[in-house]
Amino acid sequence: MEESRGEGxxxxxxxxxxxxQPDYTKITQSDDEGESELTGCxxxxxxxxxxxxxxxxxxxxxxxxxxxxxxxxxxxxxLQKQIEDDMSVTAQQYMNLYAWYSWPNVVLCFFGGFxxxxxxxxxxxxxxxSIFVTVGxxxxxxxxxxxxxxxxxxxxxxxxxxxxxxxxAQSTYSVSWFKDKEVNMVFGLQLSFSRAGSVLNMNTMPxxxxxxxxxxxxxxxxxxxxxxxxxxxxxxxxxxxxxxFDKRAARILNRGNGETGExxxxxxxxxxxxxxxxxFIICVTYxxxxxxxxxxxxxxxxxxxxxxxAEAALMNSIVFLMSMGVSPFLGIVVDKTGRxxxxxxxxxxxxxxxxLLLAFTFLTPWFAMVIVGIGYSxxxxxxxxxxxxxxxxxxxxxxxxxxxxxxxxGLALVAMLAGVIVDQFGYLKLEMFFLGCLSLALIATVILYxxxxxxxxxxxxxxxxxxxxxxxKERELNKQADLTTSVSSENVLTxxxxxxxxxxxxxxxxxxxxxxxxxxxxxxxxxxxxx
Length: 531
Hints:
Low-confidence stretches: 1-35, 519-531
Helix content: over 70%
Order of helices and strands: EEHHHHHHHHHHHHHHHHHHHHHH
Shape: globular
């Protein structure tokens, strides 16, 4: 009868391994150990979710998950001149390609985490969003094939539906696999791999375009964009493989599905402090001078500085190239020193100075673009953590959702406006517009600094001061807890009788009570009898 519960005389399972486990991994649980023992393929470190090697292999797949979307996001920026010439469109129509990407994310920033947590799940959600990215890029390429700018807009809109939500899914995977284990390093590598896709796009797509025979005519652009679709297919395959390994690890490790943890409540908006709205203004006005500039940078470098297409592409990609290399180190500096507002002012000032050089001098743009790259990386390290300092934890999801929504709304409007400025006034006026945006960002930062100082806030305190404040708060909470536990429930909840109050009063004024009196008892019993 004992054998009917699943094991034979020799301890072997009566039932075979499930048919959906092609790796033939067998799991046995030791009575003395909490960790499952794997056999077969699972016994190898590369296949064992308990081992670091397996987690790092999964990390590579997580980093490659958004490689295709980042590669394709700036396809228009890498092929600006080709799009304008082959499609016979103005700069305004060209910049609408970026605006249409941003429009769906004005809303989806609030619901991307919800869709992953409550509707699709992390694995299926990743695949769904990857399909949106791939289909959007294919539609974008078909718009070029049929010479239809409207169809290209549709493609960018569909691409945008999946792009930002895929980034949320990628972050969810990272937290699921590396929570409390190298998570900061993981996010740094994730950003570096993503930006590697942007750099690769900027420096290879123009060359791919020139390699296609002229005999195909304007359809050269469509075949070039299909290369980007191939990158999206690659990331989709990575997503499928990652879903398998994540499901397998969940089975072996007995863990739940990864969730974003986002809590979105639109009612929280009424509680947002002034400092948070200033952070929103800084975010919109600063990034308005970064991403639209990169989108229009190729032709700008060729026209003003006489750069070759290859040189212009490399100059334009320096912002993302610098982000790959220096962001982790700048993040460590900000973490160690604190003073976020100081670093934020420095980042905006550096970017402002770089745009002044690009607008009013003919000095080599290499130096200015390096400064822009450093400022962009430093701003990301100093700006985004500020939200967690000004709102409570239960409002973080709503605050970051609003921040991303407002950023996408601003980028969409600025992209359209930047195209109009280039068409009607030229690149010098465009640079002056960017200088105006950065000036507003700097002014908002100064106001935020003054407001925070008036409120005795900690946005610009050092890391040592923040640690001391946390220790003081913890010490105060411990004192309150000790006071709470020291007061007995009887003294708090039970009313004193007249006898107790009289004896307490006599004791307070110094009147000596008889030794056999108990101030808490209405009897005249001796203590020895009560003990």
